[in-house]
Amino acid sequence: MSEHVVLFAGPMGSGKTTAIRSLSEIDVVSTEATNTDRATADKETTTVALDYGEITLDDVTKVRLYGVPGQKRFDFMWSILAGRARGLLLLINNDAPDSVNLLIEYLSDFRELHERGAVIIGVTKSDVASTPTVAEYSAALTAAVPEQLIPVFTVDPRNAEEMRTLLLSLVASVEMRELLAPAPEKI
Amino acid sequence: MNQPLAPATVPSHLNPVHIDAGNRTLAEMQDLASSLTFAAMLTDDGFEIVHLNGAHTDGGRFASMSSSVQALSDAVAHELKIGTNEYVIIASELGHVIQLRVQGHPIVIAALFDTHETLGKGLSIARIAARRMAELIA
């Protein structure tokens, strides 16, 4: 059985914990604390260390799902967990202020991971805010990272099927990247 | 002198009552242990309420890390079904960090002692401080 480690990142309130709960076959390990920053995201709790879940795809591929806190003050957790991941699922909530630039900022924070692995963008809460459009995100991504084609999807983190489709796409990208990687030189 | 008043809905790191109580508690901690090299009160979600002796430590970063450590320790206790996590100790060569919750509040005390303090005494002082903080903001 092959194994992959995928990181769920994105701003506070973008749906990372919900997405992992939708996907995971095991009880999700969560580290939630009372959220005192209701101005940034109006929700009761927030992740302060990590979320952890697991899913098996096609009976032969196990994917370990790690979610990081959205707030930048927890960026030490980003570094710790990004180091072991090969794929990045970056969620951006469409109702966030200046969400396009926010996405580019988060992508830049995880540059090392998406340069050596694969990345997919999931736009959440597009039912709450209809703009920006997927095309606008794609245009901004092309301008920011012209050397890499980064897929953008709208997704509802509560919907297991939608999340599974996103995850399958990401895992396929990771595996493709591994296949295309140059073989180590023989000594 | 009257205590400053603040509505209960104000987060602890912005609540003048909690800030005042935190400063008093940490000062009392320092009186009990000169080996206390740094201490902070933080919200469960990693905002610093107050700190003591912060000249060489980034209080905001320490608060975020302490919050993560507390939550991970809680998660381990939960996973192993060993009851409520009471305190966390990080024992290192040049000092030890002790952290525990203020009973009944989403507040954590995290204290760094140098190695002149035994772990037992450090823990005892941290417990006294947690009780004191709970009394002051009750």
Question: Can you offer a commentary on this structure?
Answer:
- Chain A: Keywords: GTP-binding, Hydrolase, Nucleotide-binding.
- Chain A: This is Signal recognition particle receptor subunit beta.
- The complex is a heterodimer of chains A (187) and B (138).
- Chain A is an alpha/beta fold.
- Chain A has a single domain, classed as P-loop containing nucleotide triphosphate hydrolases (Rossmann fold, 3-Layer(aba) Sandwich), CATH 3.40.50.300.
- Chain A contains 6 helices and 7 strands, in the order βαβββαβααβαβα.
- In chain A, strands 2-3-4-1-5-6-7 form a 7-stranded mixed beta sheet, with helices on both faces.
- In chain A, helix 3 crosses helix 5.
- Chain A is globular and about 55 Å long.
- Chain A starts with a strand and ends in a 7-residue tail after the last helix.
- The mean pLDDT of chain A is 94.
- Chain B is an alpha+beta fold.
- Chain B is built from 3 helices and 5 strands; from the N terminus they run αββαβββα.
- A 5-stranded antiparallel beta sheet of chain B has the order 2-1-5-4-3, sandwiched between helices.
- Chain B has one domain: Beta-Lactamase.
- At the A-B interface, strand 2 and strand 3 of A face helix 2 of B.
